[in-house]
Structures are given as structure tokens and as C-alpha cells.
Amino acid sequence: MAKPMAAKPIGAKKIVPTKTPMAEQPPAERIKNFDEVPYGYTPEQAIAEAQRCLQCGRPVCMLGCPVNIHITAFLKLVADGDFRAAVNLLKETNALPAMTGRVCPQEQQCEEKCALSKRYESVAIGRLERFVADWEAAQGPLPVPDLPPPTGKKVAVVGSGPAGLTVAADLVKMGHHVTILEALHEAGGVLMYGIPEFRLPKAIVRREVEYVCRLGVKLVKDFVVGKSATIDELLEEFDAVFVGSGAGLPWFLNIPGENLSGVYSANEYLTRSNLMKAYRFPEYDTPIARGRRVVTVGGGNVAMDASRTALRLGAEESIIVYRRSRDEMPARVEEIHHAEEEGVRFMLLTTPVAIHGDEKGRVKEVECIKNELGEPDASGRRRPVPIEGSNFRIPADTVVIAIGQSPSPLIPKTTPDLKTGDDGVVIIDNDTGKTSKRGVFAGGDVATGGATVILAMGQGKKAAKAIDEYMKTGQ
Questions:
Q1: Topology (CATH) of 154-248+406-473
Q2: Best CA proximity match to 300, nearest among 267, 265, 331
């Protein structure tokens, strides 16, 4: 572990220029279990880290927070050791702090804006958010806030992922009656089925869902909107509907061999492991391929999750194949670092062109071609250009495709006047979440095709305000 730098003055305040380190499971140990990797801060570490905050008169860190946490005030409370007040303040704007403290890309948002980051390391805002949420859990749940008198208005929320949980929590605190309709047997959406246990323990997801329910939100599981009831049928019972059903339709490469046994979408691979506990088979009767040599295609957080899951399922080698260079990888730096620590092998500037099988129809090899980087494309990243004649093969018995996903077409197909884009996402007004259908709002991955947890929550907050206004004014 690197030795912290000595304190240096900034104006009248002396600060430590580097973040307080957070202990983690050693890589050689953690690849043998699904326990959470970072251990979190102690109270003493949390106070020391929060004291690094400059308490700026104009807190620009807040400009990077999609859910508008009062960051400097929160950090001041932590620095003073008043963790209970810090939790209360956090939950005024963020109902899910234990989750966002773990999976929100703070380094690209609030921490990137932190005034300290211009010269030193930013304050570890995400680690402190996690700390106070975990402190609350250790003390026992805090009382829920007093709610206003009921308005008599009813809202249906489709999906219990981060957008749905956020919009439900905000609306119930406005006095509305809110019912979440979840298609699966467990609430949490992508938080439950998409993010591995070692990055976001399921007990924490359940704890956050329970808090939203304690606020007064009703949760109905095993309810598939589009089959159990259509949006139009819901509007006969509810005054408004929020669609936060996520993006569960995986993309594939459309190359030969993707139908071979041993090829998974990342969605299926992670859902089997996370939600259905395949990693504890046969205690849980969900089988999964425990490949000896696993190739994961993609460079985002989902690819990191899948490749690290493969190691924990017993893979002797876990390889990530990504078509661009490391600089263009969309995954969080922390996730790439953890994958590298654990021994994941990165094959960059490489694109699969075919998957080859054995005589039994099982994956045997992945044929790839090498790339070089050309001019930037629409994403702003340099386009990968195949190098002719550079084909080669990688031995593999399991392949996981982690290149993105789209929303399920079920809701749009059963709601003809709900406009969607060519990629299947529901078209919304970005400031309000309003869709083309009166009384219907949307947010999260169903409207973006796949983004971050915190951005989905930010859309949920905007939609909650717009839904409240709609039910008051009809506009």
C-alpha cells in the first residue's frame, strides 16, 4: 500500500493530498469467493477522509451529482462524527446510498468536480456515502420520515431497478400512493441480477428495497407488464405510470458460431450467477458453465463483472477481448484495476469474427482479428480498423458476450402509441421523463439502452417531480 503524502497547505487549511486508503480482500483470496472486495472505512478513517473537504463556498462537486446530494454539508457531518445526521441528510435526496456508494462512478461525476482534484486527489465521496449507509445498517434502521397527508393519487411504477425505486421513494414522500410492479421474483432489477455479489452484496440491495417499502411503497413481484396487464389497463386503475423496466435484451455479435453450447450473453451469465445463485450449485439448482478457459467480449463494467465471475466459478484463465485500446475502455478504472489484480488477461485491439466448436457442438475456439485505431467515430473514440490477414484463434470452452443491450420490446408492442427509437428505447423528454403517451413517464435503461445506476436514479428524480406536477395540473 502506498504511503500517504504529507499534509500540504491550501490557503489556511492543511490537507492530506491523497485519499484515505480502503482495505480490500487480497486478490489471491477473493477470486475463491463471492464476498465483497473492499472492506469499507472505519469510523476513524471516515472522519479523517471527510476532514479533507475544503467546504467550498460554491460546492462544484454537487454539479456532478445526478441526484443532487448536499455533498459539502454531508461531508461536514461525517467530519464532525455525526453519522446519524449524515444518513438523514443523504436520504433526503438519495434513497439508496449503500448502493450508489458502491457502484456509482464518482470519479467521473462528483469527485471529478471536487476542488481538490485540480491539485491532489479528490475527497472519497463515494466511500463516505457507503460508510454512513453501512453505519446505519449496523445501528438498526433509522425511522422513516413523516409523510404528508395522502393526495389520493395513485402511481404504478414498472420495474424495481434504480430508476423505479427512486421515483417510487420520491413520489410516496409527496403523499401519493405508489405500487411497484416487478417482473422477477426478487426486487432490485439490474442491482440484483446484473451486478455480482462481490461488488454489490444482495443483502444490501434487499435492505435498500426494504427501506423504500417502509416509506409506504407497495411492492408486487412476478408481475410482467405487457402480459399480466398492459399499460392501458394500468391507466384505468392508476393516475400515472412510470416505466423503468430496464434493458434486458442482450446484443450479440452476429458472427458464425454464436449458437454453440457454451456461448452466453452477459445478461444470462450474470443473472444465473447473481440472482439464481448458480455459483452455489447444487445447493441452488441453477446450473452454469464452469469453464476452464473463458473469453468475455467487451470492455465495459459488465464485461469486467463477467470475467471476474468466471474466475470465481473456477476458470483457470479468464480473458477479455476488446476491440479498442485500454484508453477507450468504458469500464470504471477501479473495475479494470480489480480485474487485472485478479489475473484477468486483456487482449486489446482484438475483434472476434467467428466461434468454432467441436464435434459435439460445444465451443472450442474463438477466431479473432487484430485491429488498429483509426479516426474517431460518433462516440468520440477512435474507430477500430481490422488488420487484413491478422486472424488468429484463442482456445476457449465458454464465451460471454458483453457488448450491450436494449429494452425488451414487450411493453412497446402492447402499447402502440408509446413511441420508441430505432434501438427500441422509449423516447422521453429528458427534463421530465414524459413519453408520447399521456400519463406515462419513463426513465433509466429503458430510455437510454444502458447507462449507470446513478444516471437512472437521476432520471427517476426528474420524473417524480414531473409526475407530481402532472397529477396536480394535468400537464
A1: FAD/NAD(P)-binding domain (3.50.50)
A2: 331
404, 330 in Cβ contact below 8 A? no
Collapse the DSSP code of 151 into the 3-class scheme (helix H, G, I; strand E, B; otherwise coil) and give the result: coil
Q: Which of 97, 101, 95, 91 is nearest to 49 (CA)?
A: 101
Architecture of domain 8-139: Orthogonal Bundle (1.10)
pLDDT in tens, 177-187: 999 999 999 99
> Residue 174: how many CA atoms within 13 Å on its side-chain side?
24
The CA distance from 68 to 379, in Å, is 27
Q: What cell numbers appear for 389 in the block?
A: 490477414
- Residue 282 CB coordination number (10 Å): 7
In Å, how far are 18, 53, 83, 405 from 79, measured between CA atoms?
Answer: 16, 9, 9, 41
The CATH number of the domain covering residues in 252-403: 3.50.50.60
322, 352 Cβ separation under 8 angstroms: no
Q: What is the pLDDT of residues 359-408, one digit of tens each?
A: 999 999 999 999 999 999 888 889 999 999 999 999 999 999 999 999 99
